[in-house]
Amino acid sequence: MKNFRIVTLFFLVILSACKLSLSGGNYGEAKTISIAFFPNNAALVQPTLSQSFTEDLRNFFQSQSPLALVQKGGDLHLEGAITDYRVGPVGVSNQTASTNRLTITVNVKFTNTLEPTKDFDTSFSRFVDFPSTQNLVSVETELIREVNQQLIQDIFNKALINW
Questions:
Q1: CATH second-level architecture of 25-161?
Q2: Would you call 28 helix, strand, or coil by DSSP?
């Protein structure tokens, strides 16, 4: 029993020194994050996309990390723009589209003021397919939410898990 306590204590000390959160992020000495508004610079502009993407990104980082969200000057900083928003056919049956695809691309610049070697400027693109029998207007909000979550997870993984 004494050996078990010693081993357990050893592992607790090791884990606390790693600064690795239960959600999997590696934050180093960072305490704050600032996330700028992501404007929609795509040729096809969906009016609420910038606001929903930015707010979802901020909410995700707040809920999945111990980092405090600050207006500007965070230890970690995210900025960028939505660079593509497009809907097009991907599945064809009897010479008509059977499946459409919504694709959103976001360019993200990540700055780590404490560890500049972890900075990146990367484009992330994700999509979701939907039946061509569905009217885009009726499913667009849910499709955007789904693609946003995929993009945000990719950004979080690259910024804090170093994928």
A1: 2-Layer Sandwich (3.30)
A2: coil
